[in-house]
Design a protein that fits this description.
Shape: globular
Strand order of the largest sheet: 2-1-6-5-4-3
Low-confidence stretches: none
CATH topology: Nuclear Transport Factor 2, Chain: A
CATH class: Alpha Beta
Number of helices: 3
Number of domains: 1
Mean pLDDT: 97
Strand content: 35-45%
Largest sheet: 6 strands, mixed
Structural class: alpha+beta
Helix content: 10-25%
Radius of gyration: 15 Å
Length: 139
């Protein structure tokens, strides 16, 4: 259990509450605010993002700060894939460009595990990037 106020909706998830968690995550990540995003995670959260391992809310903030310095004009869309008890699986894609103006669409899957207070304690993400033309953007 976290020492903070509950972060609704809480597990065990239903189709409706799992979809709400996914939408809340999409909305938060699209702010590109590392501090705001990090508040959805436990203090000791554990991440695997591609080949990087991130531990704790402080490292999450640093990771996201660096991410959004590189991935400019980031726009994300998440989709609920599956859920059970305190776990949710998500499919996502996001678009961004680098400092040289090259656009990318990044595709991936995430597995999330929540504590009883609704904070994400584990996030495992597999992600692949594809170069796209700016005219091929969808998001």
């Amino acid at each position: 259990m976290s020492a903070q106020a509950p972060r609704y909706p809480l597990p065990p998830f239903t189709a409706q509450t799992a979809a709400q968690k996914v939408q809340a995550a999409e909305d938060a990540w699209n702010t590109r605010d590392p501090e705001k995003v990090s508040m959805a995670y436990t203090i000791d959260t554990e991440w695997r993002n591609r080949s990087e391992f991130v531990n704790g809310r402080q490292e999450v903030q640093q990771f996201l700060q660096h991410k959004w310095e590189k991935e400019l004009d980031y726009k994300l869309k998440k989709e609920l894939w599956s859920f059970t008890d305190n776990r949710i699986a998500v499919r996502f894609e996001y678009e961004w460009h680098d400092a040289a103006g090259q656009w990318y669409r990044s595709y991936g899957n995430e597995m999330w595990e929540f504590d009883a207070d609704g904070y994400m304690q584990r996030r495992y993400a597999s992600i692949n990037d594809a170069s796209i033309a700016e005219t091929d953007r969808r998001l």
